[in-house]
Each structure stands twice: as structure tokens, then as C-alpha cells.
Amino acid sequence: MPMDQVREAILSGDRTEATYAGIPLPESYRAATVHKDEATMFEGVPSKEKDPRRSLHIDDVPVPELAPNEALVAVMASAINYNTVWTSIFEPVSTFGFLERYGRLSVFAKRHDLPYHVVGSDLAGVILRTGAAVNLWKPGEEVVAHCLSVELEHHDGHDDTMMDPEQRIWGFETNFGGLAELAIVKANQLMTKPAHLSWEEAASPGLVNSTAYRQLISKNGAAMKLGDRVLIWGASGGLGSYATQMALAGGGEPICVVSSPDKADICRAMGAEMVIDRRAEDYHFWNDEGTQQNPKEWQRLGKRIRELTGGHDVDIVFEHPGRETFGASVYVARKGGTIATCASTSGYMHEYDNRYLWMNLKRIVSSHFANYREAWQANSLIDRGLIHPTLSKVYSLDDVGQAALDVHNNAHQGKVGVLTLAPREGLGVSNPDKRARFESQINRFRAT
Ligand code: NAP
Predict the structure, then answer these.
(1) CA of residue 297 to ligand 1 center, whole Å
(2) Domain identity same for 317 and 434
(3) Is residue 378 part of a domain?
(4) Is 29 a member of any domain?
(5) Overall number of domains in the chain
(6) Domain that holds residue 355
(7) 60 CA distance to ligand 1 middle (Å)
(8) Does 90 contact ligand 1 (Cβ within 6 A)?
(9) Does 383 reside within a domain?
(10) Low-confidence ranges of the chain (pLDDT < 50)
């Protein structure tokens, strides 16, 4: 079986180009999919009761033809991102609409418009094939992939590639994602796998680490500087666990918001000193019906922040919960401060008191994933041991539905990994000396 041959070659440690180029391609591969004919299966079901275990399938799907600018990667491990939760509960819209629209773009884009969607926006693995136009990368190279898919035909995309009109998130707005034994990515999504990490550790930071980098550090986001105080919602979650590390590594001071003592401990283990347990504080930013906000509760949060900081407001709010917290976020930012937002987990129709924004010269900055350069910088932080993976739990591909359910239920810490071709955890470390230097930091989120 060619897939066994692929796995064996990778496990043998042989990375010669000829070995991989010589392995015959399988006709099909195992992949986590959602099905187009099930896109209405949860109609009328409340969001929280929509169960990804029902909608995510493991199917044998055909290996697609490779476009000239692409690479076919043998995926050893992947990770769950919240976008796979959105896809699997068909919210806020079914992702098949994205695939249909993309399919109208070109002959190669047409491949993506299928009755199934192979999901997943992270991977670590080995390149099996490259398209005829790919020069920088070769079969046999160990890689991770970021999830920005761009066409770059239009001039708008050539300053900041996130501005490309044909910008998509791979494995969410495109097909052939990373939660599978094989994946197709554009060559300009490839980055070198950090040698001190196992496959599943290397696969876990990609999407959230890059997003946090642009949102918090990049000049395209909040452009955090030395000494900035940063309020980080969900500080032990996917995005937040990287934002917290970046705030600390960049000379800022994170004020971490979490919802349990365990999560607070994780933040302290990362080095944060100021932590707020939002559940223990029992904030009610909205009334029970969710129709009216309660500014007194914003003030209570602001007071708590000042208690922790010795009387200071925050320079930056790292926002993603959305509707639930946005009014409070705008309120607690200091005069001239920045609210950087990349998401709306609790609802996208935000409401805030604009007087606090304009009278205090605050600004709201929108941020979405990252361009290739930003993703490369973020991966380089991992590679140099300045930022570490936050993997807490690893599932097999067969259990991908449960893995997504954990994230949907907010029952996880940091990142949840998925083994695809890797037969077990812990494989893929090719620089054990470098790993030994960072072992304890890499394991901070395990067994939590
Ligand atoms: P995650 O791992 O689930 O972490 C999010 C954390 O936010 C949770 O752990 C939770 O922490 C906190 N949270 C959730 N609901 C909340 C609420 N109502 N009020 C306050 N805090 C709340 O997810 P993630 O990977 O960090 O992603 C978070 C969001 O960002 C998702 O909507 C995702 O789709 C989006 N996202 C967007 C981009 C982009 O490029 N635009 C990239 C990545 C993610 P506590 O319970 O501990 O407070």
C-alpha cells in the first residue's frame, strides 16, 4: 500500500528527495470531512447542542491532481482550530458556499467544489510531491503549513497578502485541509518544521500563533510595545495562550482572563502574574435576556484590572469572544488604547458605548489570520524557543469529532492535536539537544 510506504519512509528518517519522489501516489487517502448533503442536519438545534461527532466523518477520498504552484504533503499530525468547529456545526454558514464560490474561479479552483469538505487548517509532515512551478521546496522536506491561501493575481494583494481579493483560509474556505493523511497546500504556505518538536507539537501552533502575532505584535495589528499592559480574553485557549506568551516575551504585561482555577494556573505557569477568573468574579455584562448591557459590570472589570495593575488601565485588549465581552473591552481600554479584534465567538452583532471610544480616542483594530511573512515570523519564534506549543491533548484521526467537541464545549486548554499518519505521539524530534533546553515549557499544557 503506497500510504504505508509513505509512513514507513517518514518513520525511517530518510529525507532524500528521490525516496519520496519515487513512492507511487495512493489513489485515495483518509480524511476528516463534512458532507454537503448533511449541511442542514442541525437545523433548529441550539448551537451548543450541535455535536461535531455527528457531522465529522472519516472517509477515503481521491487524491486530487496537483496544481503547478502546490505541494502534496504527507500529514503526520494536525490540530483542531475553532474554524473546524464552525464548519462541523455549519455556523454561521455552511462552508460549502465558500467551496462553490472558489470553484468558479479557475480550473484548479474547481477541484475544491466537491460534495465533501476535507477540513483542517494546520499540519506538520513531509513533502511528497511539488508542482512544476515550485522551486524553493522539495519532496522529503519536513514542513509545517500556515493557512493563508492567496491567488496574488490582483495588485491589491501585493503589499499585504491578507488584502488579496482572493484570500482564503485553507481547510476552511478551501478543500483538501490538514485533518487527513494527505493535504494540498500552495507552496507559499510552507514553512520549515521546528526540529525540536514532535509532529503533533509542531502542527499545533500554526493558525493561532500566526493570528496572535498579527493581532498583537505586527504593525498590521495592535503593534504591542515594551511595557504595554494587555488584557487577554481566553488567555489559556488557542489564541490566548500564544498572545500571553507573546506579551511576556515582548516585554508587555498580560492581564489574563480565564474561567477556572486550572486555567488560571496554566497562565501562571506561562509566567503571567495578573489573572482574572471571570467565572469566579461572575461578570454579567449583559442582562439575562441578552438584550441590554450593564455598564456597572464593565466598571467592575475595570476596577479589578486597576487593582491588579496598581491603578492602570490596559493599553491593548486582545478581543475575540465578541458580543459577550466587546462592550466591556471598549470600556476598559485606556485613553488612546487599542481594542484588537479577530473574532466573535459569542456573537458577531457587537454593541458598545461609542462615547467611551471617541471621547477617549481609543481605536478598534480588526485583524484576520496573517500574511506569509507574519506567519513565518511567528513560526520562527517557535523554532527559536521564544514561544512554545500549548498542546494539552492529542486524539487519533478516528476521534476527530470528539476533539472538535472538546473545543466546542470549551473543555480544553491551549491546543488539541490530532495524529494523522503518525502512529503515536512523541515522534519527529530531530534535534533532541535543542528540545532538552525547552522540554518543561513544551509540556506545560500536558495533563491539564
Ligand atoms: P479557544 O481555544 O476555544 O479559546 C477561546 C477562549 O475564549 C476560551 O477558552 C474561553 O476561555 C474564552 N471565551 C469563550 N467564550 C467566551 C465568552 N463568552 N466570554 C469570555 N471569554 C470567552 O478558541 P481560539 O482558537 O482561541 O479561537 C477563539 C475565536 O477566534 C474563535 O471564534 C475562532 O474562530 C476565532 N479565530 C479567528 C481567527 C482569525 O484569523 N480571524 C484565527 C483564530 C481564531 P475561558 O473560558 O477560559 O475564559
Answers:
(1) 21
(2) no
(3) no
(4) yes
(5) 2
(6) 220-366
(7) 31
(8) no
(9) no
(10) none
Closest C-alpha to 212, from 348, 366, 369: 369
Residue 447 neighbours by CB distance under 10 Å: 6
Residues 128 and 176 in one domain: yes
Shared-domain flag, residues 110 and 247: no
Instruction: Report pTM.
Output: 0.98
Question: Domain with 245 in it: what CATH number?
Answer: 3.40.50.720
User: Is the CB of 377 inside a 6 Å radius of any atom of ligand 1?
Assistant: no
pLDDT in tens, 276-300: 999 999 999 999 999 999 999 999 9
Q: Which residue's C-alpha cell is 513512492?
A: 23
Q: Is the CB of 237 under 6 A from ligand 1?
A: yes
How far does the centroid of ligand 1 lie from the alpha carbon of residue 346, in Å? Answer: 9
Could you tell me the distance, in angstroms and rounded to a whole number, from the CA of residue 414 to the centre of ligand 1?
10
Last residue within a domain, chosen from 331, 366, 401 = 366
Q: Is 259 in the pocket of ligand 1 (CB under 6 A)?
A: yes
Buried b (16+ CB within 10 A) or exposed e, 285-295: bbeeeeeebee
- Cell readout for 255 is 492581564
Are 230 and 180 part of one and the same domain?
A: no
- Ligand 1 within 6 A of CB of 215: no
Which amino acid is present at 184? I
Ligand 1 mean position, distance from CA 323 (Å): 12
Same domain assignment for residues 318 and 419: no
Q: Cis check for the bond before 261: say yes or no (omega within 30 of 0).
A: no
Q: Is the CB of 233 under 6 A from ligand 1?
A: yes
pLDDT tens string 107-163: 999 999 999 999 999 999 999 999 999 999 999 999 999 999 999 999 999 999 999
Residues 73 and 115 in one domain: yes
| Same-domain status, 271 and 354 | yes
Whether 105 is covered by a domain: the verdict is yes
Judge contact between 235 and 243, C-beta under 8 A: yes
* Cα 265 from Cα 272, distance rounded (Å): 9
- Best residue among 48, 148, 239, 301 to mutate for probing ligand 1's pocket (most ligand atoms within 8 Å of CB) is 239
User: With a 6 A CB cut-off, is 397 part of the ligand 1 pocket?
Assistant: no
- Ligand 1: which atom is nearest the Cα of residue 239? 26
Ligand 1 and 167: CB distance under 6 A: no
Give the Cα separation of 128 and 107 in Å (integer). 23
Instruction: Tell me which residue has its CA closest to atom 25 in ligand 1.
Output: 238
- With a 6 Å cutoff on the Cβ, whether 203 touches ligand 1 is no
> If you ran DSSP here, which 8-state letter would residue 421 be given?
S
Do 75 and 156 sit in the same domain of this protein? yes
User: C-alpha grid cell for residue 328?
Assistant: 466591556
Q: Which atom of ligand 1 is nearest to the CA of 83?
A: 34
